[in-house]
Amino acid sequence: MATDCGFEKGGEWFRYRAAAIIIEEGCVLFVSDGGFDYYYSVGGGVHHGETSEQAVLREVYEETGVRYEIDRLAVIHECFWNESDGCGGVRKCHELAFYYLMKPRGTKDLPGGDEKLSLHWVPVDKLGGVKAFPAFLTDYLSGEHDGIEIITTHDESANERSENDMDYSLLISQLEAVTDGVDNNVTNLANAAALLYNSLEDVSWAGFYIADGDALMLGPFQGKAACVRIPRGRGVCGAAFKRGETVVVPNVHEFVGHIACDAASNSEIVIPLFKGGSVYGVLDIDSASLERFSDGDREGLERFTKALEARLV
After folding, report:
1. Is 138 in contact with 28 (CB distance < 8 Å)?
2. Strands, E, within the chain: which ranges?
3. Do 208 and 189 touch, CB atoms closer than 8 A?
4. Neighbours of 282 (CB within 10 A)
5. What is the crossing angle of helices 185-199 and 295-309, to 10°?
6. Distances (CA, A) of 1 to 48, 54, 148, 301, 307
7. CA angle (302, 131, 148) in 5-degree steps
8. Alpha-carbon gap, residue 57 to 25, rounded angstroms
9. Are 273 and 312 in contact (CB under 8 A)?
10. CB-count exposure of residue 109 (10 Å: 0-12, 13-18, 19+)
11. CA–CA separation, 150 and 20 (whole Å)
């Protein structure tokens, strides 16, 4: 059995890797193995006695089922990061990777190789909204390069994946997939509510209220039956509607005028959706836990609503 050029000892991990940059029809190819919430580049560890060129050709064939040809060596990337060792500790990682630009074939059709992997074509101009590694590809692919780029990154938290952290980039990608080509707001809001309710941990209600004059009317949602009409300025939803800005409430019982549609709700976040410069409605998410919604949730959900706004007709 071939041996990768790398080692792991005493909480330290190193690997010599060869990877491919495969671009077809304005999209770059990534893979995922289903066990994590992110994509990564096609490639893998260089075997002992193997050149990096031989390694990338082998890896590309094993993962895509296609014998791509190398165009040129594009990037030498040295990356340092920390990740969980699965036992409550931290593994210090160091990877040296050679990224080869492959010659395009003119088609995104791939037979696939490794059954454990999924292949994903991501539009180059949408890379910023996807959780994919290496992260430098977003900037690298936005410009033109002739020679070999040498890139060193130090990201001590790049691959730390807490069970309590939500991957909003992946959630946005899923939203864009299920709303692509759909010109019905009710349908898109319904799928958005389902994605949020089934993806976010510790939430009891997720859905939308739609603006109707000086009030909000209940729209698509997931969870228990809810209040049908909320006047502008009333409760958390009405406040977000009136202000036109996100409202995060760590403890709803301390929010003056809170409307208790669900007595079990203890914290809430409401984010307005805009269409044509006006508030179209609000996204409302409740939790039975106090202080459920962090600054990271707020930022991620605001990006989610921006993506959803782009689908409103």
Report:
1. no
2. 6-9, 12-21, 23-24, 27-32, 39-45, 70-84, 90-102, 118-123, 132-133, 149-155, 205-212, 215-223, 229-231, 247-249, 267-275, 278-287
3. yes
4. 27
5. 160
6. 11, 17, 32, 46, 47
7. 130
8. 21
9. yes
10. exposed
11. 16
Residues for the chain: how many in total?
A: 313
Please report, for residues 32, 39, 160, 169, the alpha-carbon distance to residue 82 in angstroms, rounded to integers and kept in the order given. 20, 18, 7, 21
3-state secondary structure of 119: strand
Characterize 193-212 residue by residue with b for buried, 16 or more Cβ atoms within 10 angstroms of its Cβ, and e for exposed: bbbbbebbeebbbbbbbbbe
How many H-runs (helices) and E-runs (strands) does the chain carry?
6, 16
User: Which residue(s) pair with 73 in the sheet?
Assistant: 100
Q: How far apart are CA 43 and CA 21, in angstroms?
A: 9
How large is the angle between the packed helices 185-199 and 168-179, nearest 10 degrees? Answer: 150
What secondary structure does DSSP assign to 187-206, as a single string? Answer: HHHHHHHHHHHHHSSS-SEE
Q: Report if pTM > 0.70.
A: no
Model confidence pLDDT, tens digit, residues 88-134: 567 889 999 999 999 999 999 998 877 778 999 999 988 888 888 89
